[in-house]
Amino acid sequence: MTQPPPPRPKLTPSQITSNKVNQSKLSQAKLNQNKIAAKKTVRTRSPRDSAQQPGFPLVFYLAFCFVGLLIGLGIAGRLSYLVLGLYLIQNLLTYALYVDDKNAAINQQQRIPEYNLHVMSLIGGWPAAALAQQQHRHKTQKQPFKTIYWLTALIHSLAFAAIVI
């Protein structure tokens, strides 16, 4: 025959309370460890991130200067309002393309080819591309893309200067 299990020791009320307090402390300690582990897994920005650098990025200053030049030339009568309207439409389309590409990247959908983004910058949408890149943190770390983007902005600005000024 099997022996019956040994009787459980009887606990006093103070031992029961002490046991519950110890279990509560253990649960709290595990909860704190989980919180600390969760904080460690959060992605922190590297010092290279442009969002952490104080002030505006250089490209914003250049874009503001270029847009100011466009408006000044329009007011002075050296640039038609049709051209100003086309620049506005071009920049709105470029901004929308960057936002769509960012959303496609987040949702793991088909992306807009980088070639198309560069062409939009080259034909006048580079100020909006700069704004979209910074606002949506899109294409700000990929070095080959940034280099080509700067080249498109430079080529467009030089061509614009050669034609208009």
What is the fold's blueprint, element by element?
Layout: H1 13-41, H2 58-76, H3 81-106, H4 114-135, H5 143-164
Helix pairs in contact: 2-4, 3-4, 4-5
Number of separate helices: 5
Radius of gyration: 30 Å
Average pLDDT confidence is: 80
Distance between the termini: 108 Å
- The portion of residues forming beta strands comes to under 5%
- Main sheet overview: none
Structural class: mainly alpha
Shape: rod-shaped
Regions with pLDDT < 50 over 5+ consecutive residues?
44-54
Helical percentage: over 70%
Secondary-structure element series: HHHHH
The number of strands is 0
Structure description:
This protein has 165 residues and is an all-alpha fold. The chain has a domain of 107 residues. It is 72% helix and 0% strand. The chain contains 5 helices and no strands. The longest helix is centred in the N-terminal third of the chain and has 29 residues. The chain is rod-shaped and about 105 Å long. The termini are far apart.
What features would you highlight for this structure?
mainly alpha, 5 helices
